[in-house]
Design a protein that fits this description.
The protein is elongated. Helix 1 (18-28) crosses helix 7 (168-191). It has helices spanning 18-28, 59-64, 78-89, 102-105, 110-116, 141-147, 168-191, 201-208, 210-219, 256-263, 280-291, 296-305, 316-321, 323-328, 368-374, 379-387; strands at residues 9-12, 32-37, 53-54, 57-58, 68-72, 93-96, 121-126, 195-200, 240-243, 248-251, 310-312, 331-336, 340-345. A 6-stranded parallel β-sheet has the order 5-2-1-6-7-8, sandwiched between helices. The protein is α/β, with parallel strands linked by helices. The mean pLDDT is 96. It has 2 domains: 9-208 and 326-387, 3-Layer(aba) Sandwich (Rossmann fold), CATH 3.40.50.10540; 248-312, no CATH class.
C-alpha cells in the first residue's frame, strides 16, 4: 500500500454507502481497511442499484468497497467478539453505522473500548443522531433529504417534491466521516488521546442547505420553485437549463442583456442584471427561443468566446467522453476475480509525493486467515473458528 495514510489501520464495521464510501477513500489513500462483515456478507452484497449484479457480484458493493480486506465474523458469538476486539486493539480508528445502541449491546461501544484503548478514534455514523425523538427510526438517504427540506428545492413549480438523483446524504456524510477522522488524528498527534466522533445523514444534509436555510431563517421567505426551470428556487433569470437544437445547455448567473444579445433575442438591451427575480419565468421563456435555434456546440463556442458561465448538460456517455473528465483521469478500472474488468470512479484527491493506488474490493472473507494470523491466532485456532462458524 502507498499513499499519505500508509500505516493507518481502520476497523470498518460499516455497511451500505455512508460508511463504506468513507473507508474506501481512506483506503485509496493508503490506510489498511479491515472490513468486518457478517458471515453472509454486508447488506450491499445482496442489493445493488439498478438490481445490477456482474457475475454474481453486486455493483453497489464493488463501487464502494475498493482498497479493503474482508474478514467474516459472527459478532453474536463470544469468540467472534473477541476477534473483533483484537482487530480494534490493533487499529487506530473504528468506523460503524449501526443503529444507535447496537455496538453497546455487543460490548463494542465507545465507553467499553476506550476504557482499555484511550487512544482509539471511534466514529459512529447514523441516520438521525445517537439520541433524540428519531433515535429508533430507520435512517436512509431519501428520508434524510426529505426531513432536511431538500426535496422542496428541486424541480419546477408544478412538480411534486423531487429527490436529488444521487445518494447525496450518504455521500456527504461519508465525506464528513473522513474529515472528522482526519481532524481527530491531527488532534491525537498532539494529545495522544482518542475520542468519539458522531456523524449523521440529517446533519450532513442540513449542512448542504446552509445558504438556503439561512435565507429562510433570516427573512421567512420560503423557496419558490420556478415554473420555467430556473436553476435555483431563490435565484432569478437567466440561470437555468435551456433546450438547444440537439440537447441542453446550462447558464449560470450572467447579465441577462448579454445572454439575449448572444442568442439573438431582443428586448433585454442594457439590462445588466444577473438575477432577474420579478418576472424570471417570462424572461427565461423568451430567452429559450434563441437557444432553440442553435446546437449545443454552436452555443458553447459563442459563450466561451464571450466568457459566459455555460456548460453542456451531459448524458452519461457524454460524461465519459468529456475532455476534462478524460484529462483528470478520475475514471479508473481494475480486474476483479469474478466481475472481471470493472470500471468505476476513482479517488478525487491527488498527492504529489504520496499518491494513493487503486486496489479492488475483497471477496467475502477473502482475508480471514491473513487477518487472524496477524492478530496472533495459530493455524489450529483459525481452523477451529472456521469449523465453529465463527468466521
Amino acid at each position: 500500500m502507498s499513499g499519505p495514510l500508509k500505516g493507518l489501520r481502520v476497523a470498518d464495521f460499516s455497511q451500505l454507502v455512508q460508511g463504506p464510501s468513507a473507508t474506501q477513500l481512506l483506503g485509496d489513500m493508503g490506510a489498511d481497511i479491515v472490513k468486518i462483515e457478517p458471515r453472509a456478507g454486508e447488506w450491499s452484497r445482496g442489493w445493488s442499484i439498478g438490481d445490477t449484479f456482474i457475475n454474481g457480484e453486486s455493483l453497489s458493493y464493488l463501487a464502494f468497497n475498493r482498497a479493503k480486506r474482508s474478514i467474516t465474523l459472527d459478532l453474536k458469538a463470544e469468540e467472534g467478539k473477541e476477534i473483533a476486539r483484537r482487530i480494534i486493539k490493533s487499529s487506530d480508528v473504528l468506523i460503524e453505522n449501526f443503529r444507535p445502541g447496537v455496538m453497546d449491546r455487543l460490548g463494542l461501544g465507545y465507553e467499553a473500548l476506550s476504557a482499555k484503548q484511550p487512544e482509539l478514534i471511534y466514529c459512529a455514523s447514523s441516520g438521525w443522531g445517537q439520541d433524540g425523538p428519531y433515535e429508533a427510526r430507520p435512517g436512509q438517504d431519501l428520508l434524510a433529504q426529505s426531513i432536511a427540506g431538500v426535496l422542496m428545492l428541486n424541480g419546477t413549480a408544478d412538480d411534486p417534491p423531487v429527490p436529488v438523483g444521487i445518494g447525496l446524504a450518504d455521500l456527504t456524510a461519508g465525506l464528513h466521516i473522513v474529515i472528522a477522522v482526519l481532524m481527530a488524528l491531527y488532534e491525537r498527534s498532539r494529545s495522544g488521546k482518542g475520542q468519539r466522533l458522531d456523524v449523521n445523514l440529517l446533519n450532513s444534509m442540513l449542512h448542504q442547505t446552509t445558504q438556503e436555510l439561512t435565507l429562510y431563517m433570516n427573512t421567512l421567505r420560503e423557496p419558490q420553485r420556478s415554473a420555467a426551470g430556473i436553476g435555483h428556487p431563490y435565484v432569478g433569470a437567466p440561470m437555468g437549463v435551456y433546450k438547444t437544437k440537439d440537447g441542453y445547455i446550462s447558464i449560470a448567473m450572467m447579465p441577462v442583456g448579454k445572454i439575449g444579445e448572444l442568442v439573438g433575442v431582443s428586448g433585454f438591451e442594457g439590462n445588466d442584471s444577473r438575477n432577474v427575480t420579478a418576472n424570471r419565468d417570462d424572461v427565461k421563456r423568451k430567452l429559450e427561443k434563441g437557444f432553440a435555434q442553435k446546437t449545443t456546440s454552436e452555443l458553447m463556442d459563442i459563450f466561451m468566446k464571450a466568457d459566459i458561465w455555460a456548460a453542456p448538460v451531459n448524458t452519461f456517455p457524454e460524461v465519459e467522453r468529456d475532455p476534462q473528465v478524460v484529462h483528470n483521469e478520475i475514471l479508473v478500472e481494475f480486474e476483479h476475480p469474478t466481475a472481471g474488468k470493472f470500471r468505476t470512479v476513482g479517488p478525487p484527491i491527488e498527492f504529489s509525493r504520496t499518491p494513493g493506488e487503486i486496489r479492488r474490493p475483497p471477496m467475502l472473507g477473502e482475508h480471514n486467515d491473513e487477518i487472524l494470523s496477524e492478530l496472533g491466532y495459530s493455524a489450529k485456532e483459525i481452523a477451529h473458528f472456521r469449523d465453529a462458524k465463527v468466521v
